[in-house]
Predict the structure.
Amino acid sequence: MAKDVITKDMTVAEAVKVNPDIMDILAKENIDFCCGGKHPLKEAVEAKGKDIDSFVAMLNQVEPVKESTRADAFKMSKAELVDYIIRHFHRPQLEQLDQIEMGLAKLLNVHYEHHHKELFDVYKRFMSIKADLVPHFAQEEQDDFPRFLNGEAVDFSELVAEHEAVGEKLEALHEVTNNYQVPADGCNTYHYIFKLMGEFERSLHEHIFYENSILFLMK
Ligand SMILES: [Fe+2]
Ligand SMILES: [Fe+2]
């Protein structure tokens, strides 16, 4: 069977469905594949000032990771995918949210003298993201997902709008921290917590992609 190829007239989400392992490249280039998955790939790539033909050629060079759980997730049943999202994203992300909150609270005190202004801002922005996500995950797990698995026609528009709102807040956090850059006098905790925030952002994008572009479109 011929290998599927990514073409420039696909949407971002369609390209990811050809090879989910391009998500790492899209994340690195800051190309939105979760809430912005519906957008044409060409537009998203050109908005970053890149040439679409060479970018698509480069994407087609990406070897799918062997035994990629990402690719397996595309073949899952509804129930398997819900279970995967909860175990692979909800549980670890809730833990990361707690861990980052505690780390940032510690940094506020340790680096108060030189960095309290920016750290106050980061802390408040992060806590607003956490305040959105904790009830969002609970609603999915307790209400929307069980009804969907029960065969009910679920209107996902509220969840999709929440994804977009939280995506915008994360984008703003990414920008004010200059992609989670640590000041020169930042301690190890500073480095660790900012690295965690960057990882959290990437895994949340992946999480939202599985919901918006796969799960919510299932019959
Ligand atoms: Fe979720
Ligand atoms: Fe969600």
